[in-house]
Write a structure and sequence with these properties.
The protein has helices at residues 16-46, 49-71, 76-107, 113-135, 142-171, 175-205; strands spanning 210-211, 218-219. It is an all-alpha fold. The protein has a single domain (16-205), classed as Alpha-lytic protease prodomain-like. It has a two-stranded antiparallel ribbon with strand order 1-2. The radius of gyration is 18 Å and the shape is globular. The two termini are 16 Å apart. 38% of the residues are buried. The model is unreliable at 1-16 and 211-226 (pLDDT under 50).
């Protein structure tokens, strides 16, 4: 982790580790932007709530990675503010997906299980790449931890879509797709609450949140960092 204090300039904090992180963030941002375009189009074509939810997650991730790049050299409170925005976005996506699932439950058609399978395999490959690239930076600070949590959620989403595709093909109904859409929405909302709670602590105290690497629990140090 960089030893730069929050008063240091961005150039002073541009260590080799920072440059490596920036390259990773630019790469995963581009991958998620491309994934959104592909997955959104296929989701519309396949009439899949699960794919639509996953595509919105990819779009949100692309924005989150960009925001992370913007505040990398900022103060603790600036980064906490960015994390709050990420938490709000995750919550908004969760609520949107719930509404979309309800709409499709009323008037939706049977999703195309073949298209769902192919697209979810592509998305799984993209998100696994992003997850591996981001794992080494996951305990740097809350801002990067929230990015890594979003990446972890993406993998769960992709596996859920694959499961839904198989169950749609097996049962001949749209309910598995809708069920996975609801599970994705629940994951969005859970991540939103987790990130917002930690971000609020950092925002109000100005103290960086520490994470237990194994249990993923948050602990606020007793002395503040300036």
């Amino acid at each position: 982790m960089s030893d730069c204090s929050c008063q240091d300039t961005a150039s002073a904090c541009a260590t080799s580790g920072d440059r490596a992180l920036r390259r990773v963030l630019w790469l995963v941002m581009g991958l998620n932007a491309a994934l959104f375009i592909a997955e959104f189009g296929v989701g519309l074509w396949a009439d899949s709530s699960a794919l639509m939810a996953d595509s919105l997650d990819a779009l949100g991730d692309a924005g989150i990675y960009f925001l992370t790049l913007v505040v990398m050299a900022g103060s603790i409170r600036q980064r906490a503010g960015a994390s709050m925005l990420k938490g709000v976005l995750q919550g908004a996506f969760g609520l949107f997906v719930i509404v979309e699932v309800i709409r499709r439950a009323i008037e939706g058609d049977l999703p195309d299980a073949g298209l769902m399978t192919v697209m979810s395999l592509v998305a799984l490959t993209v998100n696994m790449t992003a997850f591996v690239l981001l794992t080494r930076f996951r305990n740097e600070d809350l801002n990067l931890r929230s990015v890594w949590l979003c990446s972890r959620n993406d993998l769960a989403n992709n596996l859920g879509v694959l499961l839904a595709a198989g169950l749609v093909a097996w049962t001949g109904t749209r309910w598995p797709d809708l069920a996975v859409g609801l599970l994705v929405a629940t994951l969005f909302l859970h991540t939103s609450v987790t990130v917002l709670r930690a971000a609020w602590i950092e925002w109000t105290t100005g103290v960086r949140t520490k994470f237990d690497e194994h249990e993923h629990k948050m602990d606020v140090p007793s002395s503040s960092q300036n």
